[in-house]
Request: fold
Amino acid sequence: MTKALYSGSFDPMTNGHLDVIERASKMFDQIVVGVVSNPNKHPLFGLKERKELIKTATAHLPNVTVDDFDGLLANYVNRNGFNAVIRGLRATSDFEYEIQMAQMNARLFNAGVESIFLMTSPKYSFISSSMIKEVVSLNGNIDGLVPENILNEIKKKYSL
Ligand code: COA
Reply:
């Protein structure tokens, strides 16, 4: 059985993330969306909320589950027998950080674990979670950029 991790802060998950998950779910028997609690980013959504939102948004994908971890990603990957870690690349600006992380992780992963990069669909390549939050907080329209269940919850957070 092949198993891949797709990890990030997901504060909140966007349609760009969902697009990567949907495509990765066709390549592996199981995809685990690993939510990192990143207190430095002062998340809008708590860890439990982020996991629930992702579970609802991926309910149509039977081989996708949601988990969380803290500490070193490579330790979580090695402990749980993953074959691969999926990353989305949106623009060339992502590349420098991603190759650095992939090369460090290559030293830390068990033998045979690979980082695999999927190019983000062009219609989502400009999205980031921070930009979504900024636009909503200033009353801008983000229809179509995040899953429906998440759109409602973000609006509630900003009392819109
Ligand atoms: N569509 C839309 N947005 C995307 C995206 C996509 N396909 N891919 C990334 N993004 C956005 C995210 O929403 C996020 O936006 P934000 O900064 O506005 O919140 C931004 O791009 C960065 O995302 P990501 O690269 O997933 O960073 P992250 O901080 O969410 O998570 C980890 C990165 C979890 C993989 C990394 O920090 C990690 O491994 N942490 C564990 C500690 C560790 O092991 N460190 C050593 C690593 S070698």
